[in-house]
Write a structure and sequence with these properties.
- With 462 residues, the protein is an all-alpha fold.
- It is 67% helix and 3% strand.
- It is built from 19 helices and four strands.
């Protein structure tokens, strides 16, 4: 990738008159995807915004202000959060997120001691690629149900109006992805949600009562000070040892459902760090080190689990913003995190998000979940995995059928290893057992980041 002179280098502070605008760009880039995850899993969107902001600030601190990355809600954990919530509620999902964060910390420790080779042996592309495909395809039915059926019904009732809204939303998202240029090309999800929302209003399926209630509360406050106080309200945090007792909730079933996905997101995180290194012109896998950035992800997930938000991970959308703007300043990223926290405490923002019809989110999800599956396929292609090798064909086939088919192992009456978690565990096992491990690595470049020349800070201009 051709390197370009940075408009703002990693540790440069932007001028005050530009700081807010530059930070808002990153907020818009992450906003659509970050609120979609809690929307699908039944968590609070406002809590997701707050936890992403605090998680990003923690990440910047742990990486010593050397990696300009924004962290938002992880799509990989959508399915396990939904499954855990069915049996153990939001408390169970938070305990599972905490356990996933522990895995991040353990992997970071092992990388700091032994390097990345052991991780490559455990999670080569032939395992990670199909597991990512399973994550996307496993969510396909959720997207279609949201798009086609009336929400809140005990039985699925087909609605042509809702499906039309979903298809219009999908079309707007696709058009934005293909035809919009520059910074706007990074916001297809946001454009899709806004456009779909507007069309849904013409179809009469938007419930604006919550917005009207918030507006009435603000406008009838009686004074400017009271109106400002009414504008802000605490999100619905779910705090351990306050709202629930983790020791009463934790179980092996939660661990088996949530923990395997941490390994997948760790691999995705590594890929993001490689891309980010190329964009900025620095090898972040060496300085501050992959162990520091993975630990940052883990701490951000810890924070989310203590607030009631979904697990966090680095966002490719924000890496795209860095590539286009060439503004690499961690102060800009930190500004976006602070704004996200503030937005989470504004009741009107929560009311607007809550009013988005499920059909709109279903339309966006059709594309997003397909992209997740396609990214797994892309990993196999980029790493030149040879499916002429029986070993690779067997591992991928078993992972796909077990994961998409919904197979499960009933360990005890209460503990079950199901679906994607089981597929990931069996995939790792097959890779370790079957001979010819090197064939599953493809070109072997998955954890290799080319050396990139350090840029002279004196030549950078604000």
């Amino acid at each position: 990738m051709k390197q370009h002179k940075a408009a703002l280098d990693v540790n440069e502070v932007p001028p005050l008159n530009k700081w807010l605008v530059l930070s808002l760009q990153h907020l818009f880039a992450m906003f659509g995807a970050t609120i979609l995850v809690p929307f699908l899993t039944g968590l609070s969107p406002s809590v997701a915004l707050v936890s992403s902001g605090f998680g990003t600030l923690a990440y910047l601190l742990i990486t010593r202000g050397k990696v300009p990355a924004y962290l938002g809600s992880s799509f990989a954990f959508i399915a396990p959060i939904i499954e855990v919530s069915k049996s153990s509620g939001v408390a169970g999902a938070m305990v599972g997120s905490f356990l996933a964060g522990l895995v991040y910390g353990l992997v970071a420790l092992l990388i700091s001691i032994f390097g990345t080779k052991w991780l490559m042996n455990l999670l080569p592309p032939i395992v990670v690629g199909p597991v990512i495909i399973v994550i996307g395809l496993g969510l396909a039915s959720t997207a279609v149900e949201m798009a086609m059926y009336l929400p809140g019904q005990e039985e699925n009732i087909y609605s042509g109006t809702h499906f039309m809204v979903a298809l219009v939303t999908l079309a707007i998202t696709i058009i934005a992805s293909i035809y919009f240029k520059g910074f706007f090309s990074l916001l297809p999800i946001l454009f899709g949600i806004v456009g779909g929302y507007a069309f849904a209003m013409t179809q009469g399926i938007v419930d604006t009562s919550g917005i009207q209630e918030e507006w009435t509360t603000i406008t009838t406050a009686g004074s400017f000070t009271a109106a400002i106080a009414a504008l802000f309200q605490a999100p619905d945090f779910v705090v351990p040892f306050v709202d629930f007792s983790p020791l009463e909730v934790i179980s092996w079933e939660i661990a088996f459902l949530m923990v395997p996905f941490a390994l997948v997101t760790i691999t995705e995180h590594t890929g993001d760090q490689m891309v980010l290194s190329k964009v900025v012109g620095r090898n972040f896998l060496k300085n501050p080190g992959l162990d520091k950035s993975i630990l940052g992800d883990g701490v951000a997930t810890f924070i989310a689990s203590c607030l009631g938000g979904p697990p966090n991970t680095t966002y490719g959308e924000n890496i795209g913003v860095l590539a286009i703007t060439r503004v690499y300043s961690v102060f800009v990223i930190g500004g976006a995190a602070v704004i996200a926290i503030v937005f989470g405490f504004i009741g009107m923002v929560t009311a607007v998000i809550s009013s988005i019809p499920t059909a709109v989110m279903g339309g966006v999800s059709i594309l997003l979940f397909g992209i997740i599956a396609s990214s797994g396929l892309r990993m196999l292609i980029d790493n030149q995995i040879d499916f002429g090798e029986k070993r690779n064909l067997i591992i991928a086939s078993v992972i796909l059928v077990i994961g998409v088919g919904g197979a499960f192992v009933q360990v005890t009456e209460e503990v079950q290893i199901a679906g994607m978690a089981l597929a990931a565990i069996i995939g790792v096992g097959l890779n370790l057992i079957l001979p010819g491990k090197e064939k599953g690595h493809g070109n072997g470049q998955m954890f290799e980041a080319p050396e990139v020349e350090q840029q002279n800070k004196k030549n950078h201009v604000a």
